[in-house]
Request: fold
Amino acid sequence: MNCTGQQQPSEAYRTRRSLWFAISLVAAGLAACGRPSPADSSGPDGTTTANPATARGADTATVTGPPRAGKNADSTFGALPSGDRGIAARHPGDRGIGMDPEVIFADDFESYSSGAGLSAHWDAVYHNASITTDSSIVFAGQRSLEFVSPKQSAELNNSVGRTLRDEQDVLFMRYYSRFDTTFDVTGSSHNGGGISAHYFVGGNATPGVPANGTNKFLVEYESWREDRTEPNPGNLNVYVYHPEQRSEWGDHFFPDGRVLPNGNIPGNFGPEFVARRNRMPELGRWYAYEVMVAANTPGIRDGRIALWLDGELIADFSNLRMRNVATLRIDRVSLSLHIGTNTTGQTRKWYDNVVVARSYIGPMFGR
Reply:
């Protein structure tokens, strides 16, 4: 116990200090070597693009999407959609989805001949990011994004990030992803999709700096395996930097309502919170992941985070305070395979058919 009477973070949480410090160094180093800074001049939400099928022109500042969550989430926010009742249902096989007026950004990775081309649409590309054409791996089309993490004890951040031209209050991100069957990681790992507000400053991450309501917030949909007694890759959850975080390194929210660290203290998700069973994806299988972040109205606990797996709503966290000021808005999305230590052996993770939008997207409707 520490002087506040709370449990000390576990060893896995303490490893986040060096992990997130490493991110800052990596980002800073890449910027010094000429890595493109956040830009709006090209890519699917810019004015020009090499692949019109995944572009929609300049996005706008108009914010739509569902109404806010309040103390009575279902009555004031409305039941969240699921299944094929989203944007993807209007675009079979995701064809033309980037042109939908609700879509801000879309990438099916078909326009790249190699990982070197990713910087055309993603303004941050870190480490082992490549494009695979292996038909036994690719989800749809001919290409998918591949991250490789070699066997090593050192931390490694493989990721791509996209800064939004117009900041948002409500954002949905859907992507397909698959773990390699070799994935065998415990503790610190960020291995999914992220939505954040001002967490990156000048291209650099801000690890270990708690969110205070005015500086930033971060939400990452990922799997977390706390120790080797748990199966791989661990239960799905969201890793969150928010003003009420329990650790300087962020918290984990699980579908059943548990929050880490200090898992004996219930999460403050309001009286309408519905605890759902925790879910664990299978290795070697593609899934459609979708995450929604709705920033709260300053002064009101009406923020919300929701998670879908293959179109099924698996977690819904309401009654959240993400910010104290209206100027703190969502400005970035990302995909990653970020591992604190990977001593078992080389592993990979793949991504495909990413869509970022102002309303529910849903799984790909046909192919």
Notes: The radius of gyration is 19 Å. The domain at 11-357 is CATH 2.60.120.200 (Jelly Rolls). The chain has one domain: 11-357. Residues 1-76 have pLDDT under 50 and may be disordered.
